[in-house]
Amino acid sequence: MADGLGAKIHLPWQGCYSSSSTLIGILPYAGLKFYIYEDLKSRVPEDYKRSVALKLSCCALAGLFGQTLTYPLDVVRRQMQVQSKQPHDANDIFRIRGTFQGLELIIRCQGWRQLFAGLSLNYVKVVP
Question: What per-residue confidence (pLDDT) applies to 23?
């Protein structure tokens, strides 16, 4: 952002969501987690609907499934953050410029397994 004299003004919230991959990762995760939780809860027999342990189990499973399905978006976001701190030239063909291009580039150059590297450690964060 610039003022009338052409000087740059830095606002405190600027850069929080400078990457669309952050929002593209958060929205599906939250949506999937709520959907899966409600779906799992609806499959519980009436006798167990009030069980706290069962509700916690449904919540843990919903978080686990939601994290697994959206984790590749986190990988792209992290790689974009790391590469933003490294010097580059304009002709760099291995530079991630967007979420979907990043997914394609990671699969092509590093293999599809790289999209799930570190997922097991994330389970420790999500499930409890």
Answer: 67
